[in-house]
Amino acid sequence: MTTKTRESSGLNATIEPAFKLQNSAADSNTLDSWMPDKVLQKIVAANLGQPIKQITKESLANLTELSLIAPKEIPVVHGKRKYIISPAEYRLRLRLKSLTGLEYATNLVKINLAPDRQLNSDWCHRAVLNSTLADISALQNLHKLTNINLEMCNLHDISALANKPQLVQLNLSYNAITDFSPLKSNKQLIESGSLKLRKQIILAEPIHLTAGTTSYTSGPYQLLDFNGKNMALKIETGKHLNAKYLVKQYYSNWSDHVGQVNGKQTVTWDLSKLQPGDSAAMTVKFHSNNSAQEPIISGWYIIPFRIVSGQPITIHFKDDADNTIACQQKLYGDVNTSSTITIPTFTGYSISAKSADGTTTPISQDSVTTTITAHPQEISLIYTRNKAADITIHYQDETGKPIAPESTISGVFSEQKIIQPQDISGYTPIRYQIDHNGISHHPGSVAIVLNNQPQEITFYYDREKVSNVIVHYQDTAGKKVAPDEILSGFVNDQQTAPALKLSGYTIKLKDFNGSHIDTGLDTTVITLKQKPQELTYIYTKNILSSKNTVKEEKSQKYKHRQKTHINSKIQSIVNKKKDVRQPSAKAITGWQLGLLALGLISLFSVLGLAIIYYNRKSKH
């Protein structure tokens, strides 16, 4: 059931606003800071028997029972109860709204905040009159409670009453409770305790239906028993209700057959007998499906309505980009009924214009006047988006070190921005965080809506590791003279690749990424990049000579010089002999033979000396 339940209704109309309670600004150590409801302060003080200013968290631990009217305020005189509080004080206590602060009453056993029936009748002229208490969340951890009476307290949410192992008595009658499943955890209460949960009265916000509406479907009704199951529904015609029933004015009495319960917890109402101006209520009665003769839980769900003669005015709320910024509202009424609408304000927007019937009119006032007609009307209130707070973007490595300048994104309120991680050379995005909340998200684009609060987003990066530099060692013919080497590291790191010293080779030049370089051949400093790189050292082969070869060359040269010298001497002697006068044939022949022998002896002597000299020199 999506109908909004009213927090206050005609049932409480007799409560007089006799006092206006002002909650003063309080710091964290004052009573107002941890027990903000001043009515509760008065009730607690009365039960503790001490002034309000003496209430402390520690003193609440002494509180075992709490009543709307403290026992000492109801003395028994001649066998009858006598109330010593004033009617104004009683009405004031009925304005209790919250029990915040009572969580410190850890020894609380009994609590009774139900309005007093006698005082209701005597001072307010109503037997049943609810207080305005709605928030009982402070009771959630008070596990010593055995008796709870919160009858006629305008309660909607009773989840704080779950898990009360010692609870044996509970009175929640005459409230507006639609879900009783939290009580299932209290086994002792359900099995053998005292339970009063009847006569719940849920009064929804009134609705308006235009003339000519013949039917209306309400629901689905979410009315849950202890087990979380939907309770049975039936149409409440009110024929069996006497005038004492508070819901007598709401029973469904506009025809003999006003509606029918459907199988999905909805009711279809027949409105064909109603005319413009008629008022009524769509009232269903519900009850728990227990085996007892009388249901443990019962109540009424009431939707007041009125048939109007005019057609509704639908009001839209849009920004200057035609985006809807709030749910539409409808105005109902009779023809020619005028209404002044207070223009609502929205954070981040300023009202700028009104659009109706195709005409846009600038406006700056805080209200507009409309008139109901026999035809539907559409009005759009147009708001300008104010400048929003900026979004600051950070780029960091995993250690939190900035790796790029931060950037800022500006815009108008409610504008959505798609933010991409920046491409940073040598880094890969791995995650991001918004507003340093500690929650990391996978890398990728981020959709952020600008608002009136500054926002921050931090992209985190990992450094990229590469192994893409190959170092070759080749001769001038391209033949490999040493194994290749591969350089690894992070992008933008610098690596040093020295040239190898190879026996029998001399480095001639180097080739780096296709460029020949003939300087700085001993080493090369390379900055690692994402793209592959190549470095080639090119060598020439040396022409090598051994020590023995040099000695042999020197010996051959020496022998050649000696031989040339001896031959030269022999030729000189021969030439001299030719100049001598020729003797007789026999004499010449003898002389020649002797001379030849002498020459041969001299030649061998010189050769022997040369060999001896050479051997000695070789040994040295």
Automatic annotation (TrEMBL):
Source organism of the structure: Lactobacillus kimbladii
SUPFAM superfamilies the UniProt entry points to: L domain-like
Keyword Cell inner membrane: no
Keywords: Membrane, Repeat, Transmembrane, Transmembrane helix
Domain MucBP as annotated: residue spans: 312-384, 391-461, 468-540
Annotated transmembrane regions: 591-614
InterPro entries in alphabetical order: Leu-rich_rpt, LRR_dom_sf, MucBP_dom
The protein, known as: MucBP domain-containing protein
Gene3D superfamilies xrefs: Putative peptidoglycan bound protein (lpxtg motif), Ribonuclease Inhibitor
